[in-house]
Amino acid sequence: MALVIRDADVITMDDHTGVTPVRRTIRIEGAVVDLVAADPADVPIAQGDTVVGGRDRLVCPGFVNAHTHSWEYLAKGRYDNLPLELWMLYAYPILGARPLPPDLVRLRSALFAVESLKSGTTTLVDDVLETPGQDLRQLDAVFDAYDEVGVRANISGHIINRPFVDTLPYVADWLPADVVAQVRAVPVPTTEDYLAFSTEAFARYAGRGDGRLRYMVAPSGPQRCTDDLLAAATELAVRHGAECHVHVLETKTQAVTGREFYGTTLVEHMRRIGALSPNTTLAHGVWTTDDDIAALAEAGTCVSHNPVSNLKLGSGIAPWRRYHDAGVPIGLGSDGCSSSDTPRLHDVIKAAALLHKVTDADHESWPTVAEVLGAATRGGARTAQLHHDVGTIEAGKQADLLVYDLTTLAFAPRNRAELQLVYSENGGSLRQVVVAGQVVVDEGRVTTVDEDSLLAELRERLPGVQAEQDRVEARNAVFHETFDRMHRTTAAEDVGVHRWSGTPAAR
């Protein structure tokens, strides 16, 4: 039995019609788009097929969240006015965190997937980090939750294999010696440990969710991982046709880190050790130089742009136009629910369309709606190594799509639907979400799990979760003054790249 969406306005994002809505009828057979036709008469209807009228409906590819952290979901709305390195003290605690039980990981992941689907994200690139470390039972819980909810995802084993005080400039010299010794005494995985874990994960999750769910490697960043691990993880990703997801040059501090640690930029360091590849995606890429961008383009390396998170953490503004002009593939990400406080990609899409209009006086260089929607769909699919499967609506691709109601206020008056999708719509007009041919959201309700039961369980467990967060934050406050000093020092340094205006006042 097939699902047919008849005579809808469709943004295919393919090479022929792109972002311009066209009247099309879509036939979905199983998990795959079987046919996209201009004339409904060209679409066969068999007995038992479900036919949905497309009048007053806008259909587009499901959004790809090209960089997010579901594990931050329990810290949503907890922090404000903290730059990345200070925020990480509390959201990614250095000391004292206890392993999260798998049943809580599963609850957290299910809620994150539900909220993502209900706002139009059908694919997640989920960089999952557990503190103090990740095991396969925790990773199983993420895969299990996503399998049940019905989202598509790349799910990582995030890895840091250097003591955290040795991943930042200056702090190891400024902190009390006993605190530094305490951090360095915390065991870190070896390269062999991570490769063995990842090799097992690739085998363990192969074909999971009928191919919707895939494992990816995620070395946290070139300053947080040893060179041998970063190079080996890149090679492993290429061998498995998977994504290698790495945080690079999110903040000015990281630009200073490259200079202090390697005498060059972090991108150039990655190039030298063989850690740039077509399978590599850099999360953020805010403080890149022109030479960095050229190196990324030559290697076929992608960038996930996360404007909302970069704004909230004061990290800076990524060089959108220079990436596009160089041919670097770009996706859009929400980042985590503690750094942007929502997984909604509609917010990110609008921010990306607006933010870069103030970075260049030449209005002809401003982001176009076609570029922004392209980044949210086929660009994100490219960063995730899923561009052969999703990102466009065309025959042979996976049937991941969104159906919007064009009779809502967001589309009134109905002028250019593609512009209104970017600038006017916030997800409130979304009526159906389809992943792999299955309607997983229908009229605002997820069809696969009981959302109310999930929320009830969260409310029951939240006091214990928050008490643990309070305890860990209090223990890690010992680093705050030194990390604040480090942030202010690096913010005042000249790295030859300008991605923000203003410098934090000295104390």
TrEMBL record:
> Which GO-annotated molecular functions does the record name?
hydrolase activity, acting on carbon-nitrogen (but not peptide) bonds
Give the Amidohydrolase-related domain ranges.
Answer: 58-440
Q: Which UniProt keywords apply?
A: Hydrolase
Give the domain of life.
Answer: Bacteria
Official protein name in the record: Guanine deaminase
Q: Which organism is it from?
A: Prauserella rugosa
